Amino acid sequence: MSSQIAKAACRVTHELHGVVVSAGLMQKTVKVRVGGQRWNKVVNKWFANPKHYLVHDPKSSLRTGDVVSIVPGWPTSRHKRHVVKHIIAPFGVATDQRPPVPTLQERIAEREAKKAAKDERKSAKMAN
Length: 128
Fold this sequence. Notes:
By secondary structure, this protein is an alpha+beta fold.
C-alpha cells in the first residue's frame, strides 16, 4: 500500500508560487494568492487575474506575507487540495524560529502511519 501512496504523491505536475494572504485564522490552513493574467480582447490589454487557494500547512509554520511554493496533494478537506512545499521568502519572523515545513517523505510517512492505524482499528472492530 505504501508504494501506491508514494506514487500518487510523486506525480506532481506543477508547482505554484504565491503570497500568503490569510494565516492563523484556520487550523493548519492558509490562503495563498497566486498571480495570473487574463487577456481582454475588446480592450487589447492584459488584466490581473489572481487565484486564491486554500493550502494545507501541517505544522502551522506560515505567516501572512510569506512567499511560498505550493504543490497539489491529496485532498485534505472539501476545499484544500494543495500543500506547502517550502517557504521562498519569509515575512517577519525568520524561518529558523518557526516549526519546519515537512518534506514530501515526512508527509508520506505520516499518511502511511495514519492509514495503518486506521486499518488496524478497522480489523479490530471487525474481529469483535
